[in-house]
Amino acid sequence: MTTDTELRVSKIENGTVIDHVRAGEALRVLKILGIDGSEGESISVGMNVPSERLGHKDVVKVEGMELSQDEVDVLSLIAPDASINIIREYDVVEKSRVERPDAVTGVLTCPNTNCITNAGEPIETHFEIMDEGVQCRYCGTIIREDITDHIEA
Amino acid sequence: MRHEHVISAKQFSRADIEAVLDRAATFDDDQRGVATAHEGALLGMAFFEPSTRTKMSFETAIKRLGGDIVDMGPVEYSSVQKGETLADTLRVIEGYADAIVLRHPMEGSATMASEFVDVPLLNAGDGAGQHPTQTLLDLYTIREAEGLDDLSIGIMGDLKYGRTVHSLAQALTNFDTTQHFISPTSLRLPRSVRYDLRAQGGEVREHEDYEGILDDLDVLYVTRIQRERFPDEDEYKAVAGQYRLDADTIRAANEDLSILHPLPRVDEIAPDVDELPGAQYFEQAHNGVPVRMALLDMLL
What we know:
The structure holds two protein chains of two kinds.
Chain A: H1 4-8, E1 15-22, H2 26-32, E2 43-51, E3 55-63, H3 69-78, E4 83-88, E5 91-97, E6 103-105, E7 126-130, E8 133-136, E9 142-143
Antiparallel strand pairs in A: 1-3, 1-4, 2-3, 4-5, 6-7, 7-8, 8-9
Chain B: H1 14-29, E1 42-47, H2 53-64, E2 68-71, H3 86-94, E3 99-104, H4 109-114, E4 121-126, H5 132-145, E5 151-156, H6 163-172, E6 177-182, H7 191-199, E7 205-207, E8 219-222, H8 233-242, H9 247-253, E9 258-260, H10 281-299
């Protein structure tokens, strides 16, 4: 018997299912992961799907792509409740909850134009994750709103 | 001292600060009696911005300890002009010197530098970030004048871009102090510093003028409001005028007030204040030498 979710979003053969994304955040999840279909990957998005845990949730399924740890770290910034299922030949071979890391490296750009990380030096950005935002290890700048606007291109 | 690099006042514990100040006091009594303490030691000077007091006092300090400096010289004559990164420049200087003093116009430059060099690195100012060695001499001056506990201190002027302010405010959270921050709204403490202060248990009391506060203070730390922070001359003059102090104002409000300023001053403290017993800023500048002697003595 299929679940309510599966009725709306079809199964994938190989790839990643990002489940329990907060309702309305699915498109941002795709955006921050840089998934736009231009690589020919098949993408299914379910939005405002009923969920026992969240009331309503979004679900993202991407065929032919497995998320790296860096990508999961990024995801944790906007989808802290998400779970990630790696699918191979229609089976879930790995299931994990997103865990908020202590810090993210090389993921965000510092909005302070006078920060040394914006000066062409041989370093990666590094942001400590705080309760309400992230803080640049180098200049101390805090980003609280629209964190995803600062994801490195 | 537990730390090999001196990057930010956030890294200082009360014990760290007291150890430096205690040692500074011994050098203050006799700066010339330690001329062989660090004989042969070389301090690399990497100043990417102009400096008078900080640079000269570091140079004096290492020479008083029997060492010398190797100076990168002005940026316009260095390989930075050829496009060399700061990381590379400092790795080269590391090969010549036993410790490096860095002043750079960008925030976070000292933190980055500390990741590339193994010799002790001392942050002598990173943009609008931090100036922790200035803080140690500020604390030394305050301790000599008023003590560091049960202290009410006002910090006034450009609190947004003032790196000496950011470092001092953070270091003061180690002591039983009440801090008042006095500035125009456009130059109030940055969010990141307010966050750090609260995280360190400090309370942030902000005011737009000093009226009614001066008589509650033991110390007033004044900083310069810079012309370039304002879109036009008139706005600058209007704002800067509100934060100007003269001897009559201080006498009327609080004759015992200790007044500090990291210098250079422009108009914010009138020359007649110099005659008041609480005017500490030239003593403060002098204290740069024994305090930096103490730091170098502990790090080299």
